[in-house]
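Appendix B, example 12.
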Amino acid sequence: MAVEKVIIAKPRGFCAGVEMAVETVERALKKHGPPLYVFHEIVHNSHVVRDFTERGVRFVQSIDEVPAQAKLVFSAHGVSPVEWQRAKEKKLEIVIDATCPLVEKVHREVRKFAAQGYWIILVGREKHDEIVGTSGEAPDRIRVVANVMEARAVNIPDPSKVAVLTQTTLSVDDTREVIDALKQRFPQMITPAKEDICYATQNRQDAVKQLAREVDLVLVIGSRNSENSNQLCKVARDQGTAAHLIDDCSQIDTNWLVGVMRVGITSGASVPDHLVQDTAEYFRRHGAEVAYSGFIEENIHFALPSEIHPQTANS
């Protein structure tokens, strides 16, 4: 192996929303014991999901899979009012909402715009858990578009009354072309506030742009169903640098390393940092120097749900 240097991006890995969601499940499991049901994967990472599954957490795709009187946590991606109603009808013992506050903010904006009679264009992936939950706030008034082609074709009954919102795990760069295409069709539309874009998504993409300019290859640690992890790969490739998405260091293909002197490592917002350190150690064992790149310090923290807040955890 010819790799001489490994550079780890900063920031990377867990964002505040993921930290809150994972800690919520940890505390709920400690307080109430298994089985604990979680609606959808708490975050999109196979290692996190596998660890919780082994400890008695059951991830479900439908409220129908949750028995009456069970304990349920809603994932970081948010859910629609219909799912809340189904949970209520189940008469569950406890329901804990681990929705990321940035996602909940978009839900509130959907309700506001719908009440004011706007048609809402939601930029994102139609089947992503977050988009499914957000769309459920006003299903009759929402249209989902994923790309420029769909933006040019979307049908809106009243083009003079349009508001645009975005999936939080997309960056400003991800959505710029789509929103520009929508502006051409709906010049009066209300555009999303910058703060609706997840700060962590943008920070991690900015860090990867810098990283990709310093290395021959970028390894992004993250699961296939993680939107922001896939986007990190795309950002690196857009800089002209080869990039691969891996769940952990066991998936490194040595053929990728032929002729590579410098490797960059980053991770998606739902990835535990020990997976990054394990990957760095893989290269360190083969004689590579390990360094860090990036300057942004993230000091954002979200409060835990009141049901499992530390002050009430032992009550």
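The first strand starts at residue 5 and ends at 9. The radius of gyration is 21 Å.
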